[in-house]
From TrEMBL:
Class in the EC hierarchy, top level: oxidoreductase
Keywords: NAD, Oxidoreductase
EC number(s) reported in the record: 1.1.1.-
Name used for this protein in its record: Polyol:NADP oxidoreductase
Molecular function in Gene Ontology: oxidoreductase activity, acting on the CH-OH group of donors, NAD or NADP as acceptor
Recorded family membership: Belongs to the mannitol dehydrogenase family. UxuB subfamily.
Source organism (scientific name): Pseudomonas fluorescens
Mannitol dehydrogenase N-terminal domain mapped to chain residues: 28-279
Length: 492
């Protein structure tokens, strides 16, 4: 059954469909960066609220700023912007649900004016973002906005024909100010510490270069709530498409696959209204910091700790690494001994239980989460997910061997060949730069750890960490992943 409005009532009975009338929804949000995670998270919560008979004026208009977004738009448009949420867990039956919270998607390639006009319209009260960790154009070593980037310079020179998020936001906010329309809230849903504060700093830095008065108006009228977002969402594969078709009879060009677990902790700092997401499980708080520290250091940091080692070993799925007892022991030791002592108490969270849940989630075979997905964009992920943990270990004079192994595995992974001799490409926008860092074996330590925007200054200056990195790298190269883990775990 082809997924579209006409066929909604003809889907199998186990498929949940919107209980609200799609014709009764009205747009209240724009989301920039429509992908799997947004659809399994923000769109999922918004759809759940609409199913409760609330928030029908908060449907989502998607924006695509990249050429590759056209296929996503076309797939969604071809099925009336409906898509299937395919929730897969090892212990429970699959949950299949059609989401109707998105009702349009605009592409920058088709002309900037339509996007600016949409952002400037009074109906849009929240603009949300999933633009990846690197999309904020911030230098991780200095914490400053990288205004020199070509795309930023383009938008400063062509303010009414922008290409970047910041160019579009400023063009729209300029129109809203001139028309006396209240500002919107900018809500980051990306996995980075203090994501709202980062979005604010980046947008204000861009605005200051564009128009000083506009900068001041944005600073006074736009809010940027921080959020902790969590749901493992693998890339939708051909196997997932076929599984959905075979088991439930749904022909969906772009379903989204996810785990049963979902969490969203959000600061209640909105300038122009918001959906009542608390009715469907979103936790609002005055300060998201302890939650995001827990999630980023334990979940995202542990993901990096297993992904490059697993890929080098020849595994290609996260659950394969978790089927290997050595990996489970290593990840749990990293969580317990290296990360947990750094965390402040988290209101309402038992950290031991949370870590148990992470092990179970990583072991979920049903979703078949790809290591390639977790490996991607390492040069942007390390400064957010792993380097703060290492830096704190160094500052506190703690053992760094387990954490050094994470970096050593990435260094060897960047060479593009696993221990079985299989070659692979590096999914990172800076792949060429990163691979050049490890091209000369004699200079790897100096070149890799010396990249300040990735590793900062404390790591290359720590003799203990450098020695641990070199031991781990040489061990991986000489005896492989399994023996390296055995040695490491034999000497806790």
């Amino acid at each position: 059954m082809k997924l579209n409005k006409h066929n909604l009532n003809r889907l199998p009975p186990e498929v949940a469909v919107p209980s609200y009338s799609l014709a009764d929804t009205r747009q209240g949000m724009v989301h920039i960066g429509v992908g799997g995670f947004h659809r399994a998270h923000q769109a999922y919560y918004t759809d759940a609220l609409m199913n409760a008979g609330v928030g029908l004026d908060w449907s989502i208009c998607g924006f695509g700023l990249r050429p590759e977004d056209r296929r996503a738009r076309d797939d969604l448009a071809g099925q009336d912007y409906l898509f299937t949420l395919f929730e897969l867990g090892d212990s429970d039956a699959a949950q299949v649900r059609v989401i109707g919270a998105i009702n349009d998607m605009l592409l920058a390639e088709d002309g900037a004016d339509a996007l600016i006009d949409k952002l400037a319209s009074a109906e849009i009260r929240i603009v949300s973002l999933t633009i990846t960790e690197g999309g904020y154009c911030m230098d991780d070593s200095s914490g400053e906005f990288m205004a020199h980037l070509p795309q930023i310079q383009h938008d400063l020179a062509h303010p009414h024909a922008p290409k970047t998020v910041f160019g579009f936001l400023c063009a729209a906010l300029e129109k809203r100010r001139a028309a006396g329309i209240p500002a919107f809230t900018v809500m980051s849903c990306d996995n980075l510490p203090h994501n709202g504060a980062v979005a604010r700093k980046a947008l204000l830095a861009f605005a200051a270069l564009r128009d000083a008065d506009l900068h001041d108006w944005i600073g006074a009228h736009v809010s940027f709530p921080n959020a902790m977002v969590d749901r493992i969402t693998p890339m939708t594969s051909a196997a997932h498409l076929q599984q959905l078709y075979d088991e439930h009879g749904i022909d969906d060009a772009w379903p989204v696959v996810c785990e049963p677990f979902a969490q969203w902790v959000l600061e209640d700092k909105f300038v122009n209204g918001r959906p009542a997401w608390e009715k469907v499980g979103v936790q609002f708080t005055d300060d998201v910091t302890p939650y995001e520290e827990m999630k980023i250091k334990l979940l995202n940091g542990s993901h990096l700790a297993l992904t490059y080692l697993g890929f080098l070993k020849g595994y290609r799925f996260v659950h394969e690494t978790m089927n290997d007892p050595l990996f489970v022991r290593y990840i749990r030791a990293y969580m317990d001994l290296d990360v947990t002592p750094q965390l402040a108490p988290v209101p309402g969270i038992d950290l031991t239980r949370y870590k148990d849940t992470l092990i179970k989630r990583f072991s979920n075979q049903a979703i078949a989460d790809q290591l390639e997905r977790v490996c991607s964009d390492g040069s942007s992920k390390f400064p957010k997910f792993t380097v703060p943990t290492i830096t704190r270990l160094i500052t506190d004079g703690q053992e760094t061997e387990r954490a050094a192994l994470v970096v050593a595995a990435w260094a060897l992974y960047l060479k593009g060949v696993d221990e079985n001799g299989d070659r692979y490409s590096i999914p990172d926008p800076r792949a060429g730069f990163c691979q050049a860092l490890v091209a000369d074996d004699g200079l790897i330590t100096q070149r890799l750890l010396g990249v300040e925007e990735i590793f900062g200054t404390a790591i290359p200056q720590s003799a203990a960490f450098v020695a641990a990195f070199e031991r781990c790298f040489n061990s991986l190269r000489e005896v492989g992943v399994t023996k390296t883990l055995e040695r490491l775990l034999a000497n806790p």
